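Q: My labmate handed me this sequence with no annotations at all. I'd like to see what the chain might look like in three dimensions before we decide whether it's worth expressing. Could you predict it?
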Amino acid sequence: MKRRNFAHRPGCAVEATLDLIDGKWKGVILFHLLSGTQRFGELRRRMPGITQRMLTKQLRALEEDKLILRKVYAEVPPRVEYTVSEIGESLRPVIEILKQWGETHRARLSCAPAPDPIEAAQTAA
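A: Here is what I predict for the chain of 125 residues:
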């Protein structure tokens, strides 16, 4: 994946960091891999909204950016494991802060569960 040149622009460090973890899935993949090495199927189960094609694409981009490591075992069928690289591990505080902020502001976010209409009616009564 070709990276843009952010040098000598205001906010370039922020732009460069966000460019590495941009999109809907890269940060989520990193979040799950920060808990330990996982196989493709495990990651797919943890993210039911992602397609196989998109997960493959995002894993390749993260590997190209050296944020994760891919290890292929010479077995039949082949086993592939993904783990966070040393550079990826340095993003742990960023990912944890994003998670904390999301939990704090969950009610305002689109990923928050819809309020239960029965519970809301009982609370209002």
